[in-house]
Amino acid sequence: MFFSIKDLNVFYGVIHALKDINLHVEEGEIVTLIGSNGAGKTSTLRAISSLSKIKSGQITFRDKNITGIKAQEIVKMGISHVPEGRRIFADMTVAENLSMGAYLRRDKEGIKSDLEMIYRRFPILKDRAKQMGGTLSGGEQQMLTMGRALMARPKLLLLDEPSMGLAPIYVQEIFSIIQSINEAGTTILLVEQNANMALHVADRAYILETGKIVKEGKASELLNSEEVRNAYLGGV
To answer: pTM of whole model > 0.85?
Structure first.
């Protein structure tokens, strides 16, 4: 199994945030988690990245138990996390932000090659390479944080609300980029409130409600489900 979560429970104090979560991601897939605010989507990604403490359960990546190991070890193993709210280094240049994504790597030629790849994928970042990250638009910052994560050469990319707060023109572009990253060989676990867009690009989906998975299936089937359309797609 490429990636799986089994019986995952996470608490924040007395709040039971994740309740016996079970999911899996096959290599090469885009899998999306959808649900309303507070459903547990971000908590799931934070648990995978060891940013939230796990009460019980097991997380497996490429047949290895990675439950609770240190966050930097998670990155070394091939999982990169693009956090909600982008969280770039505002007082560093675009080029410096990107270099931070490769901080665990020592292969200078490989880093240089990957930086050129990022600039080809995100031409605006090459144009802005010497600008401070904080001067970029929201869409450009989202591209920067995705580029930074890709500099770690992840096998699995965790994306948390990549379209949040973006103008519609950027939303379409970000989802096109997500598809192209996947087509280039990176498996993706996508958390997204824009359920319509997420289900259009994903292979499979899980629906979270108050910390529980209440529905799962092929994204195309959920997209055509009247129940899902009414609950998450505004009835469209």
So the answer is: yes
